[in-house]
Amino acid sequence: MASNETPRQWLKRTAGRGARWTRLSVIAGTLSTLVLLVQAWCIATIAQRMVIDGADFSSLTLPLMLLPPAFIVRGLLIRGRTICSARGGIEIRQSVRRELLERIAVLGPFWARRQHSATLSNRVWDQVDALQGFYADYRPQMLLCGIIPLIILVAVAPLSWAAALILIATGPLIPMNMAMVGIGAKKRQEDQFQEMGRMSRHFLDTLQGLSTLKLFGISKHQAQEVHTASESFRRRTMRVLRLAFLSSTVLEFFASVSIALLALYLGFVYLGQFHFGMYDHGINLFIGLFILILAPEFYQPLRDLGVHYHAKAEAEAAAEDLMPILNRRVFERDTDQPAWQPEASIALTLEGLSARYAGRASPALDNVTFELHANEMLAVIGPSGAGKSTLLNVLMGFMHPEAGGVSIKEGTRPPRALTDIRPDDWQRQIAWVGQSTVIVSGTLADNLRLANDAASDDALLDALEQAALKHWFDALPDGLDTRLGEGGRAVSGGQARRIALARAFLREARLVLLDEPTASLDQASERLVMDALARLSSGRTVVLLTHRMELLALADRVLMMDQGRVRALDTLDALRAPQGPLARPAATDIPERRDV
Amino acid sequence: MFKKLLPYLRLMKPWAWLLALGIALQLLALASSIGLMALSGWFLSASALAGLSVATAQTFNYLLPSAGVRFFALSRTGTRYAERLVTHDATFRLLSRLRRHVYERLEPLSPAQLQRHGESELMTRLTADIDALDGLYLRVLAPSIVALLGIVVCGVVIGVFAPAIGVFAACALLTSGLLGPWLAWRAGRIHSDAWQQDNTRLRARLLERLNGLSELMIYNRWQGEVDKLIKGEHARDTHEYRLACQWGSSQLLSQTLLGLTLTGVLGMAGWAVIQHGMDATLVALMGLAVMGGFEAIALLPQAWQHLGRIQRAAARLDDIRSNVAETRFPDAETQQTPEGARLCLDRLSVHLEGNIAALSSVSLNIEEGEHLLILGPSGSGKTTLFNSLIRFVSPSDGTMTLGGAPLNRLSERDLRAQFAVAQQETHLFTTSYRDNLTMGRDVSDTNIMAVLDALALGDWLEHQPDGLSGFPDERGSSLSGGQLRRFGIARALLRQAPIVLMDEPTEGLDEATEQQVWEAIQKWCCNRTLIAITHRLTQLEQFDRIAMLDEGHLVEHDTPTRLLADPGSRLSTLCRRIDPELAGLMRTP
């Protein structure tokens, strides 16, 4: 997996995943050219028998009988080709999409959040779909461009070397001419693609900004603007197209001229004006017509390829977006560790922990050292950017520290480094309540069992009660079978947060991680969530990120962080003692800044 | 079935001649192509026949046919080039009009509702739909007409020599060209619709799951989600695969019919030669003409496929219009003009989709020149209040008046002129920064620079190589989130309107910048009404009045001093809940 791979190389490498379908598609295309030879034979034979031999109608029986099956077989082959091509494209897409989705898990949620979920889903969904045209149409066609002309040459050459020469002379010239005549025809096609893209982006831009335009009272006037901009794009695009079409015209020209040349050459041979280019058997009408019928097919693959050019440009653009995700190097943890299953509450020791985001100069965590006791609730506070979320991500195993480490101690067993525990085993010991809660489409029971597959219905009810959802639950029409989310019952922010808490109760995890669990809740919900939190924290080791005073009061100790470093770690009372870092000033004025 | 396409067909009227020219050129190109093959076939047959004896070989007039062959070779090339230029030019002209047309139809819709309809995804799909609609001429109309005429040309070329064979060829070609694609189009609709539905659902699901990635990973469910998504994708792709199968079958049908047509024509020609003494050299001409005619038919399947896509696009455009209610503005007779800028809200209630009450009976008067701060947790209805003022949402109950005139009696022009708004999201247009700030009005660069400086954007501007004339890059990412927000504030402050609405203007800004931005807003809004929304407890005393919203109810409103002095007020409770020292710690020392 070379890091300096080009999109084109990536596309080629990835093509291997659907290679057998592409191969079948190319075979079908090749066979259908062979059937074309039969068709040409039939037509040319009929003409020869009628015109020259003056034969009886019965002599036409064989070619006439052969024609319909030839067309049917060709139709079948075309059908096969269409199906195989589509199949190949679909398989490659599915495989790339699966790899992307699995890759996202390796890169971790923190990385994903920084990509913007909308951008990321666009890549995983739309950009992968954009590969279809390339693999289904362009690639097989490109391969056929090397095969079909060759078959036709092989068929023509033994009949007349002059005819073959005409084809050879114009054939290979075509790609060369395409490049030469429109110096950089490819560049021009790219320009065309870009210009068209700009054109539709401008319109999208206007539509997306519609409310802004309205607010500034110019949305009506903008209709004219849309038209004017479109018109100026048209003029620009047409300038590009005038040149871009030249390259396909060159192709067209060679195809037409070589057919004309062939016809004239053959005609003059018949009339006895030309005496070269044939073998001892000479050229009869059959041979002439046979060659003439095949001639357009010699150029057809290249003409078809031009139709699919945009698919290639689209796929290359998509590849450019996808490659950074697929080829990004990450630390991959050894998965051969022995299984780990703690039997008692766990304590954590963080030793000289430093972590850094790619491309950032200053570390997000800088030499963090502290101990988290078993069954302790530790609150972490600090301004944004202090490293609180990073700390959480390291603890969850989503981020790998660049120095230092975390070791876990449970009961009387010797401490074990976090890196020596399989991620699955570790994550099974974590319950998590964050600022937003995933409600998956499904029943309430499905949503709760997310945290624990094996939980009985009684356990679910118990968890609901613990999470202060009993009241809400009793009003549900279908109880645990009530459908939530997409197409089901809407869940408010406070309810979702308590569902997350219920999951945490069900989880039977040793470590509970809480990220602002009461953020943006109304007062009533906040109260309920806090009571539930107090219940949840007993008998578990808890790390809580917050800046709420009430929540701090629940904590055994408070860790103050700033710029990735530990500033203080003590009980709330000690921190608030007269000389402590959280000491009250003499007179409390209205604070400058707080959140509602 | 095709009624929805009528308005789009009508749009083509002004360029009827251009479109006709494009079709004529396409037809010429096709005729040249048929001519080239048919004439070459005849020329070969005739010269081969003539070449049988020396005498006929010498008298054979080869000048005319050989000139014809060369002519067709050149005209095929020339007309195809011209045809491409003309049809593309016509398409782009149509596109300009089409965009304007669609824009004019969308413009009256309420943006807030449009956004709820699916936000940018809807817009993206819309652009794709318009791109599909612009193919109506280039991909559907022109090829269809050309194919039909091409079949006629083919029939005529043959029919000149043998009318019966000509008629047979034309009819048979027509059948083979239409039957297969039509069947595929009919049968394909079910799968296309199902595909579209699956696709939308899966896309939404993916986005939802990506948002909850941490939780899903912690609960070991990501792999399960991946499997489910891939399974959904397989189901979606099955429809795609079925479409490909249908498509292949329709090609098979077309080929079979072509084969039968060709056999029929050649058989009839052979029969005619033997039984009726038709010139034998015409056999090859007829066969090759049929094959050339099929080149036109080969265009039809694609046209049918596009037709389906275009019909769905047209239907979706209609759908948006019928689903999203318009905000109606009064006509000239019933409209009123405001006197002054006093805002009165009387028992204002707003219900959003699903009948959720976003605002419940809010009554509030805002005097001209007053600076009002609206506080409340997220979801308390602050933004909805703004949206009702600018008539992006319609109240379900209660009245709003501005300068004595009911808000819904103001013409759109008058209403817009009253408000300068900075929304939470700032949309940056792909035009110069200057145009993005002036929004179509004349504002001097000095004024622009003054606002930017006041909002701490002066530094940023200095780093732009082209200054105000520079363009944001194509994805609009040349400004950071915080800068973009301030850019939106600058845009609103530059607008000379009596009432300024600011939605969370300092969200995502650091302490020092936040302070500076508030100062700039206050300074630029003196003598103007300022209504600001925030959920941060800052700058309280810089405002004349504070209104607290909670779950759509106006809980309290008074001067900050009085609210803070009352220990029972919501504001005081809030200020106590977040400990001052803790708040102090939040600040970077």
Question: Can you put this structure into words, describing what you see?
Answer:
The complex is a heterodimer of chains A (about 600) and B (about 600). Chain A is of the alpha/beta class and about 600 residues long. Chain A has helices at about 5-15, 20-55, 60-115, 115-130, 130-155, 160-170, 175-180, 185-210, 210-215, 220-270, 285-305, 310-325, 390-395, 425-430, 445-450, 455-465, 470-475, 495-505, 525-535, 550-555, 570-575; strands at about 345-355, 365-370, 375-380, 405-410, 415, 430-435, 440-445, 485, 510-515, 540-545, 555-560, 565-570. Chain A has 3 domains: about 1-160 and about 315-330, no CATH class; about 160-280, no CATH class; about 345-425 and about 545-580, P-loop containing nucleotide triphosphate hydrolases (Rossmann fold). In chain A, α2 runs antiparallel to α3. Chain B folds into 2 domains: about 5-325, ABC transporter type 1, transmembrane domain (ABC transporter transmembrane region fold), CATH 1.20.1560.10; about 345-585, Rossmann fold (3-Layer(aba) Sandwich). Chain B contains 22 helices and 10 strands. Chain B has a 6-stranded mixed β-sheet with strand order 6-7-8-3-9-10, with helices on both faces. A 4-stranded antiparallel β-sheet of chain B has the order 2-1-4-5, with helices on one face. Classes of the chains: A alpha/beta (about 600), B alpha/beta (about 600). At the A-B interface, α2, α3, α4, α8 and α9 of A face α2, α4, α5, α6 and α8 of B.
Q: Could you say which structural class the secondary elements and strand pairing of chain B correspond to? A: alpha/beta
Largest interface: A-B, 168 and 166 residues
* Number of E-state strands of chain B: 10
Q: What is the count of helical runs of chain B?
A: 22
Percent of residues in helices of chain B comes to 55-70%
The CATH architecture of the largest domain in chain B can be named as Up-down Bundle
Task: Let me know the largest β-sheet of chain A.
Answer: 6 strands, mixed
Rg over C-alpha atoms of chain A, rounded to the nearest angstrom: 36 Å
Number of domains of chain A: 3
CATH-assigned fold name of the largest domain in chain B: ABC transporter transmembrane region fold
User: N-to-C terminal Cα separation of chain A, in Å?
Assistant: 50 Å
